[in-house]
Amino acid sequence: MAYATPQDLIIRYDERRVADLVSDTGSRSPNPLTSPVVVAVLEDAAGILDSACRVGGRYSLADLANMSGSGHSLLVRLSCDIAYSLLVARRGYSAADMKAMAPQMDWVNAMLDNLRKGDRVLDIFGHTVTPGVGETDDPNAKHTAATCLHIESLKARTPGYHSGTDNVGLASRLWGRRNPN
Is the pTM of this model over 0.90? Predict the structure, then answer.
C-alpha cells in the first residue's frame, strides 16, 4: 500500500517535471495523476520505506498504515522524495546526474538510516516524542514510540530476560536493586 498519492507527489514536485518523467513518447504526459508509472513508483517507495522501518521490529505494517499527524506527514514526504528519485532513475541518468536532479535523496538516505538504527522514531501514537527520552506532549500518555523502543532495547540487552519477568526483577538485574519482598 502506497503512503502517498499521486496528488501528494504533485504537491511536492512540479507537475510539468513529473509529466515529463512519466512519459515515454517524448511529449509531456497530459495527466501524470493517472499515470500507472506514478502509481508504480509510489508503491515502490512504500516498499523501500517498509523495509527500512520494519528493521528490528520497530514498526509493524499496521503501525505504518495507521499513522497520522506528523508521522504520517513524514512518511508521505519520504515516499514522494523516493518516488521522484525513482522517476528520475527510470530515465537511466548517471549517478552524478541523479545526484543533481534528486539531491533530496541524501537526506532521505540519512533519514532511512536513522530510522533503521532507532536514532529517529516515527510518531505512531500521535504524540511528540524524543528518541531515547520517552517524553510526550500528552501528560496522560502511558507509552510513546520512544518509550516502547527503549523498553524493547532494554529487553534485548538484558541477559535472561523473558516475557514473564516482572518490572522489579528486570530493574534488579539492570541496576542491582534487590526485590523488597
Answer: no
Q: Check if the beta carbon of residue 32 is closer than 8 Å to that of residue 104.
A: no
Give the start-to-end residue ranges of the domains of the chain. Answer: 1-124, 125-181
Buried b (16+ CB within 10 A) or exposed e, 64-89: beebeeebbebbbbbbbbbbbbbbbb
The DSSP secondary-structure symbol of 57 reads G
Q: Are 58 and 118 in contact (CB under 8 A)?
A: yes
Report the alpha-carbon distance of residue 127 to residue 107 in Å, rounded.
Answer: 24
Cβ-based neighbours of 170, under 8 Å, separated by 6 or more: 154, 155, 158, 161
* Single-letter amino acid, residue 78: L
- Cα(124)–Cα(146) distance, integer angstroms: 10
Helices 36-53 and 69-89, axial angle in degrees (round to 10): 120
Phi first, then psi: what are they for 75, rounded to 5°?
Answer: -60, -40
Q: Look up cell 508503491; give the residue.
A: 43
CA angle centred on 153, ends 147 and 154, rounded to 5°: 90
Give the pLDDT confidence of 88-115 residue by residue, as tens digits.
Answer: 999 988 889 989 999 999 999 999 988 8
